[in-house]
């Protein structure tokens, strides 16, 4: 959860110039569960590279943003430790992490409609998954989103799939 919070605190994790390489780089780390776990993969790979600038250039990852995310995560970990809360990793248990996200963002749930759009639980607004999301055109029945933005139409970003029963467990 600390890694996700740190990664969402920065903008433009991937170099954004519209090149096909950008989409390819994003897909390389993509996981079917969604954007949050994809960002965790990028973060872990960056740390494994020892925060290498060359690694970032080769993978179209923004080195400055990643360095900030690492610094932010370190600060968050220090705060949590200072509060006496043990730092426990969920490891590869993606369901544990997605349940945690459900607990924090249950108000930002949306259900897939027959036409492929989503309807938000709060406000029943019709939205689309933004094309930069790894969840774009995946068709997950239920999702949580980090943010709703309006450009040419309402889009949700920072999207992950969830099980609907998780909402009743945390709400």
UniProtKB/TrEMBL annotation:
Domain of life: Eukaryota
Domain DEAD-box helicase OB fold: 97-171
Lineage of source species: Eukaryota, Cryptophyceae, Pyrenomonadales, Geminigeraceae, Hanusia
A Pfam family matched in the record: OB_NTP_bind
InterPro entries registered for this protein in UniProt: DEAD-box_helicase_OB_fold
Organism this protein belongs to: Hanusia phi
GO molecular function: helicase activity; RNA binding
Protein name per UniProt: DEAD-box helicase OB fold domain-containing protein
């Amino acid at each position: 959860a600390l890694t996700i919070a740190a990664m969402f605190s920065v903008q433009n994790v991937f170099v954004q110039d519209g090149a096909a390489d950008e989409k390819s780089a994003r897909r390389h780390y993509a996981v079917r569960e969604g954007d949050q776990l994809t960002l965790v993969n990028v973060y872990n790979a960056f740390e494994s590279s020892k925060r290498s600038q060359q690694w970032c250039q080769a993978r179209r990852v923004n080195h400055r943003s990643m360095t900030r995310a690492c610094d932010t995560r370190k600060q968050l970990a220090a705060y949590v430790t200072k509060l006496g809360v043990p730092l426990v990793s969920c490891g590869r248990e993606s369901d544990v992490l997605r349940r945690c996200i459900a607990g924090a963002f249950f108000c930002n749930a949306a259900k897939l409609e027959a036409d492929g759009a989503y309807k938000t639980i709060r406000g029943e607004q019709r939205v689309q998954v933004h094309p930069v999301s790894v969840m774009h055109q995946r068709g997950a029945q239920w999702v949580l989103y980090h943010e709703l933005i309006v450009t040419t139409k309402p889009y949700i970003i920072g999207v992950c799939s969830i099980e609907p029963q998780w909402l009743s467990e945390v709400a």
